[in-house]
Design goal:
Blueprint lengths: L1 E2 L2 E8 L2 E8 L4 E7 L4 E9 L2 E5 L5 H15 L5
Antiparallel strand pairs: 1-2, 2-3, 4-5, 5-6
Length: 79
Amino acid sequence: MIEGDEVTWISAAAKGERKRRFNRRWLKIHLEWDAARDLVGRLYLVSHGKRTEIAAFLGADERKALAEVLKSAIIRPKI
């Protein structure tokens, strides 16, 4: 969920719900990519030196598409 400068990630894993908040100005979307073998790896939300893996249950193409959508969603126009 994105509201103003805050991005909230909620995990509904079997271990119970976890919630993490990020400032969108410091948030980076990182998708591991092995160019030599053309393989998509893990997808992370990265902020202040900490990374949170997301979407591990998705296939490679779905993680790649999600990374692009998230990158577009957190961009704020510079005025």
